């Protein structure tokens, strides 16, 4: 596998990856991966705000 990657990176020939394949890859990333990361990030931030605004957590130190 590694030798294949080295040969691919060091070769000066045309790319075996077609424009259609790259387009579908970009669409998958921008339509699935990024929105998923954004939703998970927002939900995690809301959970942090919910936990940290509780009265027990508003003390200077939590014991």
Describe the structure.
There is one protein chain. The relative contact order is 0.06. Helix content is 68%, strand content 0%. The chain has a domain at 27-63. The chain is built from 2 helices and no strands.
Distance between the termini: 52 Å
Please describe the biggest sheet, giving its number of strands, its sense, and whether it closes into a barrel.
Answer: none
Which regions are unreliable across 5 or more consecutive residues at pLDDT < 50? Answer: none
Which range best describes the helical content: under 10%, 10-25%, 25-40%, 40-55%, 55-70% or over 70%? 55-70%
Regarding quaternary structure, how should these chains be classified? single chain
Number of helices: 2
Rg to the nearest angstrom? 23 Å
Note the overall shape.
rod-shaped
Mean pLDDT: 78
SS class: mainly alpha
SSE string, helix = H, strand = E? HH
Task: Fill in the keyword field for this structure.
63 residues, mainly alpha, 0% strand
Outline of the structure:
The protein is mainly α. Helices cover 68% and strands 0% of the residues.
Q: What is the topological layout?
A:
Blueprint (H helix, E strand, L loop, with lengths): L1 H9 L8 H34 L11
């Amino acid at each position: 596998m590694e030798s294949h990657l080295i040969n691919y990176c060091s070769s000066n020939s045309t790319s075996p990856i077609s424009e259609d394949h790259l387009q579908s890859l970009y669409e998958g990333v921008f339509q699935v991966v990024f929105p998923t990361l954004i939703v998970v990030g927002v939900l995690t931030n809301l959970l942090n705000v919910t936990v940290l605004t509780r009265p027990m957590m508003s003390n200077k130190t939590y014991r």
